[in-house]
From TrEMBL:
Pfam families: Prok-JAB (PF14464). Keywords: Hydrolase, Metal-binding, Metalloprotease, Protease, Zinc. The keyword Metal-binding applies. Residues 2-128 form the MPN domain. This is M67 family metallopeptidase. The lineage of its organism: Archaea, Methanobacteriati, Methanobacteriota, Stenosarchaea group, Halobacteria. It comes from Natronomonas aquatica. GO terms for biological process: proteolysis. It comes from the Archaea.
């Protein structure tokens, strides 16, 4: 499993995370989804509607549906989702695992811990997150 992320998309995710701090930001990733390799070609921002946005993220269900339809209409596929950890590592939290709902899809975490930006990607297998290498093009 590998996630290919163009540098421009990586930079856009980083910019979104920085602009939203200290709250977590969230969005949907589109491109080509595959079991062994996925490629991100677009990132769609969504508003974080979580009750505690400094430590949680949530996309409104109507917004999520609208974004998924938009992705389908552009003949792309949903690759996964991204959110930020303004003060934590680029690793899924227990809450992230409890709320994960898309087996086989990528969950990218943009960490701002320590003042630098780091991306981590994880594939949800239905029971746990498996690490997924991120390759920047």
């Amino acid at each position: 499993m590998t996630l290919l992320v163009p540098a421009a998309i990586r930079d856009a995710l980083s910019e979104h995370a920085r602009a939203g701090a200290p709250e977590e930001v969230v969005g949907v990733l589109a491109g080509r989804h595959g079991a062994a390799e996925s490629t991100v070609s677009r990132a769609y921002r969504a508003r974080n509607v979580a009750d505690r946005p400094t430590t949680r993220y949530e996309i409104d269900s109507e917004t999520e549906l609208r974004l998924l339809e938009r992705i389908e209409n552009t003949r792309l596929e949903c690759v996964g989702f991204y959110h930020s950890h303004p003060a934590g590592p680029p690793e899924p939290s227990d809450t992230d695992a409890r709320l994960a709902a898309w087996p086989g899809y990528s969950y990218v975490i943009v960490s701002l811990a320590g003042g630098s930006v780091e991306l981590g990607s994880w594939r949800w297998n239905g029971d746990r997150f498996d690490p997924e290498p991120v390759q920047t093009e």
